[in-house]
Amino acid sequence: MGTRQQNLTPAEHTTASVSLQVCAVIDETLDARSLVLDVPPALRERFRYKPGQFLSFRVPLAGKLLTRCYSMASSPLADALPKVTVKRVDGGRVSNWMNEVQVGDWLEVLPPAGHFCLDPQADTEKPLVLFGGGSGITPVFSILKSVLHSSRRPIKLIYANRDEASVIFKDELCQLIKAHPDQLHVVHVLDSVQGFLTDHQVRHLLRGSAGGDYFICGPGPFMDTVERTLLAVGEAAERIHVERFVSPPDPDELLAEEAVARAAAMDSQCEALIVELDGQQHEIACKPGDTLLQSCKAAGLDVPSSCEEGFCGACMCVVREGEVQLARNDVLTPKELADGWTLACQSRPTGARVRLKFPD
């Protein structure tokens, strides 16, 4: 059992990340593994998570510190420790690196983030319909296990894969079906048998599930097909939740983008940055060129944040007054942007007065 501590210099080790040790490795399929992380008592509150959230990992490769997000397949209600599942991607630098991790290795991890979560006020009488494609099963599996643990809400899982051998969590799913036969209904869609999921198939699979809550994660075309069909049959957009992951640029590319965005914002002078946080209002200073997040941190405000690179969504906030310039966005949907949401780590004020509100 070898131990491999990431050799990060003090400059590379971000204040948000911590080292966690891998305490178990589970071979799920030929090209997917689950890593269970040991969270010491002192960090358990910091790593408390909601079903459907993800962890971000900082991985040193070829002299660079690369960041990737992996959803937790564990349930905070049913599992003692967080577990992420990583599927190898052809040419994927980090996914291949993660699939070589062994028990005892140390990984650099950011706290949980993400908004692909059930509304705690959701009507538990309405059906919950989960669509997972390939390794996209991980966040919906976390939600599935949590709902089974906490309520009698009916659940339908539509799970698409290449073939039977590529079905992640197959045995665990079989056990859950046996334990909850009246609550959980699972439909497997295999490319090798039925072909890729079509709009017609989605319509058929949705029968009896109208008016539910829908969670979708998987390859882009798979998610597009499901979302398009749900909207076409009249399901409300606010009840459709889609989790899309992108690989962020390498650090040198991010630094170049940051320099351009900062230079463009240097001429803007924000005289009043007002931040609504946890029911309190704060008026803080804003140095020209700084992001909203940098200004909040400089003022000592403990606002939510994680990756600080524009792809995790932890620092989402609403612009209630004034205007900001969003440099990079891999998270927010067009509707969220239209509703005034922005990313504090990527936004800079462009007017004299800006008011923000972070979610309670």
UniProtKB/TrEMBL annotation:
Stretch forming the signal peptide: none
Entries under InterPro entries matching the protein: 2Fe-2S_ferredoxin-like_sf, 2Fe-2S_ferredoxin-type, 2Fe2S_fd_BS, Beta-grasp_dom_sf, Cbr1-like_FAD-bd_dom, FAD-bd_FR_type, Flavoprot_Pyr_Nucl_cyt_Rdtase, FNR_nucleotide-bd
Cofactor dependence: FAD; [2Fe-2S] cluster
Transmembrane segments: none
CDD domains membership: fer2 (cd00207), PA_degradation_oxidoreductase_like (cd06214)
Top-level taxon of origin: Bacteria
UniProt entry keywords in alphabetical sequence: 2Fe-2S, FAD, Flavoprotein, Iron, Iron-sulfur, Metal-binding, Monooxygenase, Oxidoreductase
GO molecular-function term, one example from the UniProt record: 3-ketosteroid 9-alpha-monooxygenase activity
Enzyme Commission number, as recorded: 1.14.15.30
Enzyme class: oxidoreductase
Pfam families linked to this entry: FAD_binding_6 (PF00970), Fer2 (PF00111), NAD_binding_1 (PF00175)
Ranges where the FAD-binding FR-type domain occurs: 15-119
Domain (2Fe-2S ferredoxin-type): residue spans on this chain: 271-360
Name of the featured protein: 3-ketosteroid-9-alpha-monooxygenase, ferredoxin reductase component
Source organism (scientific name): Pseudomonas fluorescens
Gene encoding the protein: kshB
